[in-house]
Amino acid sequence: MDSLTTTVSQQGDTLSSIGTRTTSLENSLRSTNDTVSKKADTTAVTQLQGTVKQQGNDIAAANSALTKLSSDLATTNGEREQKSDASAMNTCRTRSRSRAKHSVRRGIL
After folding, report:
1. Residue range 45-59: mean pLDDT, rounded
2. Residues 10-38: pLDDT tens digits?
3. What are the two backbone dihedrals, phi and then psi, of residue 46, each rounded to the nearest 5 degrees?
4. Disulfide: which of 12, 28, 72, 103 matches 109 by Cβ 3.0-4.6 Å?
5. Do the Cβ atoms of 109 and 103 come closer than 8 Å?
6. Longest Cα pair distance anywhere in the chain, in angstroms?
7. Could you report how far apart the first and last alpha carbons of the chain are, in Å?
8. Do 100 and 109 contact (CB within 8 A), yes or no?
9. Which residues contact 40 (CB under 8 A, 6 or more apart)?
10. How distant, in Å, are the alpha carbons of 9, 23, 70 from that of 18?
């Protein structure tokens, strides 16, 4: 009987040890699952990379458009200044000719 009691007691200890290890493994697995669930999956990362790449392309295109616009504006301003100078010269010539004609008519010249 003592032998049977000892065997049962040892088996109880073994089962208790197995239960403790099983509980520990379950807790570790739960912790791992929680961590994994917080990680981004490959599809989400790939989609995000695509979005970021497209935004980079959009920014580059907008930058190119702004650079061209700035260049066009500088060209337009230069042309406007040249036309303003030419217009001022024409106005000055017209006034000078008009004054000269009046002076000739009056006999001043």
Report:
1. 95
2. 888 899 999 999 999 999 999 999 888 88
3. -65, -45
4. 103
5. yes
6. 155
7. 152
8. yes
9. 48
10. 14, 9, 76
pTM: 0.45
What kind and span of H or E run contains 109? none
Q: What are the domain boundaries of the chain?
A: 1-39
Amino acid identity, position 56: G
Q: Evaluate if residue 109 carries a pLDDT over 70.
A: no
Residue 99 and residue 30: Cα distance in Å, rounded?
101
CA-nearest of 66, 67, 63 to 55 is 63
Q: Kindly compute the dihedral angle of the four CA atoms of residues 32, 33, 35, 39, in this order, to the nearest 10 degrees.
A: 130
